[in-house]
Structures are given as C-alpha cells and as structure tokens.
Amino acid sequence: MQISVAKVAELVGGTVDGDSNTLIDRPAKIEEAGPGSISFLGNMRYEPYVYTSRAAALLVPVDFIPRKPYQPALIRVEEVYTAVGQLLSAFNIDPSAGLPASISEKASVDEDAQLGNGVSIGRFSIVEKGTQLGTDTRLMDQVFIGADCKIGKNCLFYPGVRIMHGSVIGDNCVIHSNTVIGGDGFGFAPREDGSYTKVPQVGNVILEADVEIGTNCSVDRATMGSTIIRRGVKLDNLIQIGHNVEIGADTVIASQAGVAGSTKIGPSCKVGGQAGFAGHLTIAAGSSFQAQSGIAGNVKQENGTYFGSPAIDYGNFVRSSVVFKQLPELAKTVARLEKKLKELEK
C-alpha cells in the first residue's frame, strides 16, 4: 500500500508542513523510521528523533515548534494518538478479512445451533447445541463455543478462543487468541479436615457490545447470576476477572491485572498493568490506578488517581515515596539524636 502525505493529512484531519506529494508505504517507530515510512511524536521525550529521522512524514501536535532543522514532512493534528489510530487502521491487515461467509468442512456445528447470515466458521472450530451466532460473526480456526451461548452480530474470535456454555456476548465484540470466557470461578468450601469441597459455579458471563479482550485472559463464570463486562470495555492480555465481577462501561485494564470475585469497578476507569483488586469491593466511576497498585478497600470518590500497595491518593504516594527514600538517613539521624539525648540525661 502506498499513500501520499497529502492523503494521510486528509485522512487524519491534519495540515502539512513540507512535501505533501511524498509517498508513504508503511508506519514505523520514530527511532527506526526510514525512507517511505511515517511515524509520530506523541511524547516530547522522543523529540530528538525528529531532527535525525529519515521518515517521509511525522504526525506531530498542532502546536509543535521545531528547535532544529528536520527532514520529514510534518502533519500537524489536534490529537496525535487519535490520528495514529486512524493511520494504523488504513494500514491494518485484517487476518479475518479473507474468510468466506461459509462453514469449513473441518468445523463441527451442532444441528441445533442457529447461524445468522454471513457467519464464517474456520477449521476445527466447534459450535455446540442451542448456540446462536449473529449476522456476520467470524470464528477463526480452533474456536470452541459451548452449548446455549448467544453471540451477537459482527463479532470476531481469533484462533483458540473458548466460550463456555451459557455465555452471552453482544454485538461487535473482539476476543483474541486463547482467552477463555465462562470457565469456572474459584469457589471452594473448606472442610473440617483441611481439605476443600468445590462449590458449583452455575452462573454465566455477559459481555455487552463493543468489548475487546486480549490474548490469554480469563473471565470466570458467576457462582450464581452473571459476571458482567459492560459496553466498550477494553482488556489487555493476561488479565484475570473473577466470578461475579462487574466491569463498568468504557473501562480499560492493562496487562496482568487481576480482579477478585464480586468486585464492581465503575464506568470509565483506567487500571494500570499488574494492578490487583481484592474481592467484594466497589470502585467509583472514573478512578485511575497506576501500575502495580494493590486495591484493598472501596473507592468512593469519583475520578480519583491512586498508586501503591495498598493504594493511596497518587499525590500522597509521590510525597510519601520521597520520605521513604530518605528513611535510612532519617534513621541514622534519629539514632544520633537519641544518643545525644541519653548523654544529656546523665
């Protein structure tokens, strides 16, 4: 694919400083971009690369003022990361795009399953009895859909996805490889002898519309009722969502985070990588948690930002960390003062 700088500017709603006729054939990282490529400046820490880059063009903030000579054409945009998303969509190669609206002869589809128009099912995929697949939904190779599931329209499941029985998935959902939706929740009752009895997990999982889940995630079915992932939620790779959890609309969670059972995270929250939530919590709308935060209690104030384990207000954490780094010297100072005090008391 080749596209001119002028066409890219039109695509992203930007203006061009430089040669608008130059052709672009690929996106690239700013530190690696070469002739014919396009990159972006979304963080000013990367500004030095602007002056050494051999890229054909760079997406930059509309108010960016170069401090040195540079070679690439600059495409000025209001929101760089939004423009990057639009650009990558133009260059994206959809591996499912070539799937015909048909069922592979190597797939296994129960005769009681209901398939909408335009459904594609890849090789060695399985659709069990009573399941409904909506119009234009695409299952790539080796996808498993258990019994009595309801899958909406225009969904895309990548190879190795497992949707267990009774799950409900809304329209336009994307689930990446090796993610399991609706596996048993972690429920065991202790016996007097120290062993455990498994508690049956008889609920299900509900994914509302426009949810995207990365690779190797697990969303457990509810013990009773439903584990619910609300509209527009985005989950990164390697995330664990426990039984009866509810994730609010448009919340985003980064890799390796975990949410224990029955916790309710409000809408429009942002959760950094490796953050962990204890069970049975309620998290207010718009809350943000930095990476590796440990959330052990309810968060009642909306739109707060938190850091640390246990997580506290972000500003307080930063100030506390300054003190924490000084503790060895403070301890020495206290010891010296105690020694002098004892000498004065003699």
Mean pLDDT: 95
Please tell me what the overall shape is.
flat
How is the CATH topology of the largest domain named? Answer: UDP N-Acetylglucosamine Acyltransferase, domain 1
What's the number of structural domains? 2
**Number of helical regions:** 5
Q: Write the CATH homologous superfamily of the largest domain.
A: Hexapeptide repeat proteins
Strand content: 25-35%
Protein described:
It contains five helices and 39 strands. The protein folds into two domains: 3-91, MurE/MurF, N-terminal domain (Udp-n-acetylmuramoylalanyl-d-glutamate--2,6- Diaminopimelate Ligase, Chain: A, domain 1), CATH 3.40.1390.10; 108-317, Hexapeptide repeat proteins (UDP N-Acetylglucosamine Acyltransferase, domain 1, 3 Solenoid), CATH 2.160.10. The mean pLDDT is 95. The strands form six sheets. It has an eleven-stranded mixed sheet, covered by helices on one side. The protein has 346 residues and is an alpha/beta fold. The chain starts with a strand and ends with a helix.
What attributes does this structure have?
single chain; 346 residues; alpha/beta; Udp-n-acetylmuramoylalanyl-d-glutamate--2,6- Diaminopimelate Ligase, Chain: A, domain 1; UDP N-Acetylglucosamine Acyltransferase, domain 1; 2 domains; 5 helices; flat
Nutshell version of this structure?
By secondary structure, the protein is α/β, with parallel strands linked by helices.
